[in-house]
Write a structure and sequence with these properties.
The protein is an all-alpha fold and 108 residues long. The protein has 1 helix and no strands. The radius of gyration is 45 Å and the shape is rod-shaped.
């Protein structure tokens, strides 16, 4: 049975080659699926990054606008403080002139 055992060995070799090829195809399919998944994840990640960048830009613009408004408010506050000081000075001068000015206005 020398010929028969040679044919059987050849058949086994063909079978193992076929199973190796089938395994290789399955592995390639798995890798292709994984590659597609990763590409989708990259696309999603880029979309998220773009959305975050837009949000950051909007927040920075909003922050800048609020800072500018705050500067204006502080300048107005300084002007108001100066005006109040000037009015107080004027009021105290009026009081001095009324109290020590020799009875101008109402008699006392």
């Amino acid at each position: 049975g020398g010929c028969n055992s040679g044919a059987a060995a050849e058949e086994r070799s063909r079978g193992s080659i076929a199973s190796i090829e089938a395994e290789r195809r399955r592995e390639q399919e798995r890798l292709l699926l994984r590659e597609n998944q990763l590409q989708e994840e990259v696309v999603e990640g880029r979309k998220k990054l773009e959305a975050q960048a837009a949000r950051i830009k909007n927040l920075e613009m909003d922050s800048r606008a609020k800072r500018d408004k705050l500067k204006v408010l502080l300048q107005k506050s300084d002007s108001d403080d100066q005006l109040v000081d000037a009015l107080r000075t004027e009021l105290s001068k009026l009081r001095e002139s009324l109290s020590g000015g020799g009875g101008m206005g109402r008699g006392g």
